[in-house]
Amino acid sequence: MSINVLENQMFNPEKAKRKSNGLFLNPEEIFEFHKSIGNNETPLIELPSLAKQLGVGNILIKDDGARFGLKAFKALGASYAMHRIIEKYPEVNTFCTATDGNHGRAVAWMAKKLNRNALIYMPKGTTQERINAIKSEGSEVIVIDKGYDHAVKIANERVLESNNHGDNLWYLIQDTAWDGYEEIPLDIMKGYWTQMHEISNQLNNTKIDLMFLQTGVGSWAASVISYAMSQWKNPPLFVSVEPLSANCVFESIKSQKRITVNNNETTIMAGLDAGTVSTLAWDLLKNSLIGAISMPDSLAEKAMRLLAYPLNKDLHIKAGESGAGGLGALLALSKEKKYTEFKNKISLNENSTILIINTESDTDSKNYNKIINKGRLKF
Ligand SMILES: Cc1ncc(COP(=O)(O)O)c(C=O)c1O
Fold first, then answer.
1. Which of 192, 272, 284 to mutate to test the pocket of ligand 1 (most atoms within 8 A of CB)?
2. Ligand 1 mean position to 231 CA, how many Å?
3. Residue 337 burial by Cβ neighbours in a 10 Å radius (0-12, 13-18, 19+)
4. CB 3.0 to 4.6 Å from 187: which of 68, 81, 261, 290, for a disulfide?
5. What residues are in contact with ligand 1 under a 6 Å CB criterion?
6. Which residue in 63, 64, 100, 283 is the catalytic one?
7. Are 260 and 149 in contact (CB under 8 A)?
8. Ligand 1: distance of its center to the CA of 62 in Å?
9. Whose CA is nearest to atom 9 of ligand 1?
10. Interatomic CA distance for residues 163 and 186, integer angstroms
11. Which fold does the domain 75-174 belong to in CATH?
C-alpha cells in the first residue's frame, strides 16, 4: 500500500486566503441557479466505525454520486458556466469540450437542456460505457488516439476552426485553464461551490481538520479550497491525491513550478488522468495545499470496497474509482508507520475530523462490479 507523500514548501495559508477572497462572488446566487435546474442536496454521511478502524476522530463523506442523476458532481460546474454563456451570447449553437467522461457527460446534459448541440472529444482508452453515457444525452463523441491533454488541444482547435468557417457560433467549455483561457474554467470552479455550500449547511458547526482532495487538473480542489478559505472561520488543512501515473500536482509541488507530466499510462481513476494542472487552480493550490500524495490504483480499489461493505452501522456508499481516491490516501496513511512524520505535519491523528467528498459513483459499472466482487476488505 505504498504511496508517495510530499510536504509543500510553498504552503502559505495567509496568501491562499487572500487569493480565495479575491475570487469570491455570492455562492448563494449560484446555489439558487442550481436549484432552478432541479438540483437536490446530496447527503453528508458520518462513518464512525470506519473512523475507529482507521484510528481517527471522525470521517464525514459528502456523497455526490447521485448529483443530477449523472453519477458525478461535474454538472455543477458545466451547467453554471454554460448558463452564463447563453445569457451573454444566446446565438451560441454548439458547445465543445474534451473529457475523461464526467465533464463531457455534464456538458452534453446541459446542452440538451439549453437546446444546443455538443461535440465531445475523448482520449484513447475511454470505456464504452462512458462514451455511451455521453451519447445518451444526444451528443456526438469523437475518441482520439492520444491522451487527455491532447484531446483538450483538439477541442480548442475545432472551436477556433468552426468559428472561422461556419455560420454557427461554437463555444469551448473546458474545465481547465491556460494563459488566455480563464473565464469559462473560473465559472466552472464557481459552479462547484454549491457542493461546499451544501456541506456548510449540513455541518452544523462541526469543525473539519483535514480534507483529502482527488485532483485531475485541480479545478475542483481549488474550488473547494477557495470556498473553505473565504467562507469558513477555521478552514481545514488540504492534501491533494492523484494517481501515480498522472501526478501533475505532486510533481509541480515538488518542482515549485507548474509542470506537465507524461500521462501515457492509463489509470482506473479516469477522472484524475490529467498531465497538466490548470493555471487558475495552480495559482491557489501552490499556496493552499499542505501536502501532496500520489497513489497506485490498488488503493482506490480498496477504498471502493471499504465503502461498499461498511463496518457495523456505517452506511453503504457507492464510490467510483476517482471518487474513492481521497479515502484511498487516508487508508494508506493510517495503516503504515513509515508516514508518521507526514501525518504529524498534516495533523492527522486520533482526534482529527476528516472530510472526504465522493465525487462519483459507478461511472464504469462493469469495472465497479469487478472490484466489488472481490468482497469485503480485510484489515
Ligand atoms: C469523479 C471525479 N473526481 C474528481 C475530479 C477532479 O477534478 P479536476 O479535474 O478539476 O481536478 C474529476 C474530474 O473530472 C472527476 O471526474
1. 272
2. 22
3. exposed
4. 81
5. 72, 74, 100, 102-103, 175, 214-221, 271-272, 274, 322-323, 359-360
6. 100
7. yes
8. 15
9. 216
10. 23
11. Rossmann fold (3.40.50)
Compute the distance from residue 173 Cα to the ligand 1 centre, in Å: 15
Q: What residue segments make up the domains of the chain, in order of their start?
A: 4-73+184-372, 75-174
**Is 74 annotated in the active site?**
yes
Sort strands 289-295 and 169-172 into parallel, antiparallel or unpaired. Answer: unpaired
Over the stretch 36-81, which tens digit does the pLDDT of each residue have?
999 999 999 999 999 999 999 999 999 999 999 999 999 999 999 9
Residue 287, C-alpha cell as written in the block? 499556496
Return the amino acid letter for 4. N
* pLDDT tens by residue, 233-283: 999 999 999 999 999 999 999 999 999 998 778 899 999 999 999 999 999
Q: Give yes or no: 100 in active site.
A: yes
Q: How far apart are CA 17 and CA 174, in angstroms?
A: 26
The pLDDT tens digits for 320-350 are 999 999 999 999 999 888 999 999 999 999 9
**Residue percentage of the chain with pLDDT more than 70:** 99
Task: Specify the CATH number for 4-73+184-372; select among 3.40.50.1100, 1.10.10.10, 3.10.20.30, 3.40.50.720.
Answer: 3.40.50.1100
Tell me, what amino acid is at 1? M
Sign, Cα dihedral of 107, 64, 345, 343: negative
pTM above 0.90, yes or no: yes
- The answer to whether 256 and 9 are in contact (CB under 8 A) is yes
CA distance 300 to 285: 23
Distance 346 CA to ligand 1 centre (A): 23
